[in-house]
Structure formats: structure tokens, C-alpha cells
Amino acid sequence: MARNHDEYIRNLFGNEDTALQTVNESIRKNGMPAISVQPEVGRFLSLLVSIKKPRYIMEIGALGGYSGIMLAGALENDGSLTSLELEESYATVAKDNLTEAGLGDKVKYVIGPALQNMESLLSAGQQYDFFFIDADKVNYPNYLDMALKLASPGAVIVADNTLQGDRVFDDKVNDENVEAIRTFNNKMANDDRIESIMLPLCDGLTVGRVKA
Fold first, then answer.
1. What pairs with residue 207 in β-bridges?
2. What is the DSSP letter of 135?
3. Which stretches does DSSP call E strand in 102-177?
4. CA 41 to chain centroid
5. In terms of CB atoms within 10 Å, which end of the chain has fewer, N or C?
6. In total, how many domains does the chain have?
7. C-alpha to C-alpha distance for 30 and 93, rounded to whole angstroms
8. What are the pLDDT digits (tens) for 8-46?
């Protein structure tokens, strides 16, 4: 019997196939931080992509490719994933894992600081229909600003870890990461260009749609 709603949801929707288990093992083997999205978050991302049917997805933060598999695996045949990753070694692991999962032809990795690369993609006239933000928390507000510039009308923006272990609503916490997430959540809630909601799934997901 589950002890709380998180455990109940995980028991029902947190199963991992061989490809995702391989990602977890590769992260351990390469000494990378074990901070991939939770399985049920991955399931939610896959569902959103299946519903939205985006052609171009941008992922900010690749790590070992766990979320990349969930995003790219739900794309239509002509869809593609652009994954921004600061660490080249992480991107290499992620690329190997997506290739092993049969999704290597759907993803392109862009190495280096994400904000800089987003600026370059904007200058090149790129637009995206779906964004998943799961990188350094202090830059979440900046990633949102850039995503809005790169977004096509109706684009979906999803960000993970937006409850920060329930610290976002603790007035005694003023950690820079928590403060940045508070700013991000406030922007998502109050920017007239977005309609949005926060879901208390795992460590919090904030989900928005850019108005047409």
C-alpha cells in the first residue's frame, strides 16, 4: 500500500523500459549526477508531446538523455529535438543512449552555455513548438525570456523542479536557486503572453502555453 500520493503515482506510472534503465546505468557508470527526471515526469512529458504534436522541441539540459528519450520518442516522424547541454561529456552519453534507443536521428546536441546558444538559434531564425527546461535553476527566468522569443504561437513550455523541495513557499529560504524559481513561477503565472499552471508532481512542474 502506498504511503502518500507521490508513491501511489510512482507505483502506477513510474515503470521504466530497458532504454531508460540503460540511461540510469550509464549515468552511474560515468559518475554523473543522478538528477534525471523521475519516471512519472518522463511519462507526462511524453504524453504532452503526443497531444501537442510539436515539430520542433528544445530541451535545456540533456544530462544522460532520460528526458530526451521521453521527448523524442513521442515525436511524429518529421519531428526533431534540439538538446542544449553545457557539458560535452554529458551530451556524448546522452547521444549514445538515444542512438541505442533508436532515436539518434531525431536529436541534435548543441554544446555550451544554453543562453548563448539560444541567442544564436534566435539569430538564425529558429522557432520551437515545445520547450523543456531542466538545467541550472538560477537561469530559469532567463531561459523563459529566451523561450518566449523562440516560441511559435501556441508553443508549450514545461519546467521541472519548480517546487524546490517545497522551499519555494518557505519565506525563511532565500537561496539563490529558490529565489530564481520563485521569479520563474511568478513570470509563468503573471505574464500576459502565457496561460499556465503548476502541478505538484514529484518536485513540481510548471506548464504553460504561449498564446497565439
1. 158, 197
2. S
3. 107-111, 128-133, 151-160
4. 9
5. N
6. 1
7. 8
8. 988 888 888 888 888 888 889 989 788 888 999 999 999
Q: Read out DSSP for 31-63?
A: T----PPPHHHHHHHHHHHHHH--SEEEEE--T
Give the range of the structural domain holding residue 139, as residue numbers without chain letter. 5-210
Q: Which residues neighbour 79 within 8 Å (Cβ) at sequence distance 6 or greater? A: 53, 54, 55, 56, 57, 72, 106
CB atoms near residue 125 (< 10 Å): 7
Average pLDDT (82-106) is 96
Q: How far apart are CA 95 and CA 121, in angstroms?
A: 20
Instruction: Return the SS3 of 110.
Output: strand
CB 35 within 8 A of CB 67: no
pTM of the model: 0.95
CATH number at residue 169: 3.40.50.150
> What number of other Cβ atoms are within 10 A of residue 130's Cβ?
28
Calculate the CA 70 to chain-centre distance: 10
Let me know how long the chain is: 212
- Nearby residues of 49 by Cβ (< 8 Å), 6 or more positions away: 57, 70, 71, 74, 75, 130
